[in-house]
Amino acid sequence: MRFRTQVVNTATFTKLVGSLSSLGKVCWMRLEQSTIRFTIIPDQGTQVWAELPVDSIFEDREYIFESNTGVINLEVPLSALHRALRSAASAKWVQLRLTKKGKVALLALTVRSTSWAKGANPLGVGSGWDDGTNNTNEPATAPFPAAEEEEQAGTALFPGDAATSSTTDGRRERETVITQEIPVKVLHESAVEGLHEPRCRDPDVNIILPDLFQLKSISERFTKLATDSSPATKSATTITTSTTTQSSKQAGSISTSGGTGSSPISPKLELSANMHGSLRLAIATDALRISSVWTDLTNPALDPSQLSQSQMDQLPSERMRAVPGDDEAGWAKVRIDGKDWARVLSVGRLNPKVVACFIHETALVLYVYLPRSWGEQDSCLTYYINSYMN
Amino acid sequence: MATLSFSLLPASLLRMHDALVCLAKYSDAVAIEAEYNLLRLSALNSSKTAYSAFIFEADSFFEKYDFGLGRDSGPSQSRSSRAEKFSCQVYIRALLSVFKGRTTGRNQDTAVERCEFEVHEDPDETECRLVIKMICGLGVVRSYKLTYESTTIQHAVFDRSQATNEWSIEPKFLKEITDHFSPSAEQLDIHAEGTKAIFTSFTTKITDGKEVLRQPVHTSVAMDKKDFEHFLADDGLHVAISVKDFKAVIAHAETARVIITARYTRPCRPLQLAYDFEGIRAEFTLMTTGEAGPEDAPTSSRPVPQLSARQAPAPVQVSQANSTTNARQMPPPRSRPIRPLTGTSSRATDPSTQATTQPTPSIKFDSLFVPADDDRQWDVVEEDEAEAEDMLGWDATADTDNPDTLGPLLRDSEPSLRDGDPMDLSHQDDMGIPPTQRISQLHGLGLFD
């Protein structure tokens, strides 16, 4: 069993792991010759099945993969991996490999990062101590290549530095090698063969979600308002003010902690959409009912090459399309947990296109396409969110 | 009695505050010691593995510094060196709260202009206090009276001339290294290899099964030796210190922007990080753990063999080393022949105490820490087994009069114990009821009738 590769798309990989880590502590990472799959199946909340072609994050030519079964299944702690990947932020070379220390399997992330440093070269002949004193007199600056490069080039011309006759023109490239060893568990095929992607009926409504950041902040605001208003002592009028002024909103958020602590059930958001480009986000409590509606969104058409015309007509989404836009019957609705939804939307950092598939009163399935792979079916993160009963 | 008073300008006050913030990471209490030419603030952590001290030079750091000893113990008398200074201990949070508001003063007019520090100590007075006055703008004076505890202060002694490994580096580079570490990393291993200096974070906690995934990430950062001002350390020599202590040093050194120098000899001996600036000498003496490097003699770096090196003739040490490495395979060396060689060793270092789990008197480590110190804290848990085998070497000189102090491993093959076996039998005979006695014979005892 061998796995070694060079990470080329570090930023994407980091963001992907980051957004996954908000949904679960561990993920099942399934490595194959051409694809990588990340799966999160939490006890409660949203399931994620993400499948990426190897070349979307790893270097194709540097991908060494050997396994008797053609598959390597790993259980990976996401937050540890995410933290480790942060070391790779400004790196020029990042390698990921599967290794072993004692009985513990490890994913070893090796990062070569370079930065510019002042010409302290005490191991060089003679000039070492002079350089040393120069270094101390100058204010410490963060040795990051891009930002500091020009400035340091300027100081290098400074006579003081030149007088030390440093062989490195007052600055040099310094390289640091960082190795992060993340403990993982190798899963036997039998441990994962029972795990299948959820199957559900054809969706009633398909719609492309609006900007996720906007959706996330509105969702979070709604959730907070509902949480704040749940204690019976609060009147509806207080909530009205809290939506309008910043200061009272702050006051409200302080009392939130008490409210959430007493009631373990966090408020449920109602998310609904129709086949006429409208998406509605709503929340209702005893004290308030608020909603936001987006219009003029896109209802993506299904690929006609995969379905015959008659099959197309049979689809529930086509029936929903036939319902006029102003008719409530044309809306498919799901009730989802506000906090879980906010964690799902953290995938927004990848700047993806998201197609939301509504199965009325049953589930919400999100197909998250990474920017580069828009339209490619094989590079997609699928989120399965159960709808709560009313 | 002693009189102490000094005053600080805002810049110095800031430095002293930084020092206290740093010391607070080691201990709850700060030791304050005043001498004629310096003031020392120091802290020793509860496990006595880390000692940090800031020494403020009387001439250069303070605006004004007065220290005198009362008529009873004037400098001319010099009854004992201990009386030459004033020492006390203060709860560090209390002292820090005095400095609070120094920077957050909303009104710039009432910013602190001077800080005056006085000790009121007099046997005739009922109240002995540290009095700190913050002289602020617009005639505002904030005064604080703190209680203190008069104690004798423990110092870690570090002999720089003995340190064979030394390197200096800007703290920002070290900061970069620790930034990569997992927040739950506990230990830091430092070693040199070729042109690289390698810093590895690890944890000694043993986890298995499901817990494996919760284990902290091990991070190793390899840095070019060129990044150091100078680097003189043996290749392949590993020393390990606590990450938390290391970070505390870096955080302070960064505020001072001053080059840190590390000095150490070998594992299980102290490592000192030190730097001087603006009339302040900062010293952090940290205990190291680790294993002997390949080029070291196998006995040289472990704490217990080290003790033997000072007490026992060299040949004995070697023979013990042989026995330690093969402790499980070989019968333990006979105790009688060896014993006379170390017979002069005092009771305090009686090997039998080391064979058990009792703490080793660690005062022998460069006379660093008090004898009550628990030696196991130095140990890397992963090495516990190996350590235990090493310990067996000491059993060779164990107190045979008291075989109970020996470990169970030794007991099986210890010749003297075989003599004990018949004794045990005779002991059972005294009971009058051998174990094979039938119940039928027990009539008349009233139990089984």
TrEMBL record, chain A:
InterPro entries: HUS1, HUS1/Mec3. Keywords: Nucleus. The keyword Cytoplasm does not apply. The keyword Nucleus applies. Signal peptide: none annotated. Residues 124-174, 225-269 are annotated as: Disordered. Residues 133-146, 229-267 have a biased composition (Low complexity). Pfam families: Hus1 (PF04005). It is found in: Nucleus. It comes from the Eukaryota. Belongs to the HUS1 family. This is Checkpoint protein. It comes from Aspergillus cavernicola.
From TrEMBL, chain B:
Residues 317-328 have a biased composition (Polar residues). It holds the Pfam family Rad9. InterPro entries: DNA_clamp_sf, Rad9, Rad9/Ddc1. It comes from the Eukaryota. Keywords: DNA damage, Signal. The keyword Signal applies. Gene3D superfamilies: 3.70.10.10. The keyword Signal applies. Residues 411-430 have a biased composition (Basic and acidic residues). Residues 1-19 form the signal peptide. Transmembrane segments: none annotated. Residues 290-366, 385-449 are annotated as: Disordered. Residues 348-362 have a biased composition (Low complexity). Acts in DNA repair and mutagenesis. Involved in promoting resistance to ionizing radiation and UV light, as well as regulating cell cycle progression after irradiation. PANTHER family: CELL CYCLE CHECKPOINT CONTROL PROTEIN, DNA REPAIR PROTEIN RAD9. Belongs to the rad9 family. This is DNA repair protein rad9. It comes from Aspergillus cavernicola.
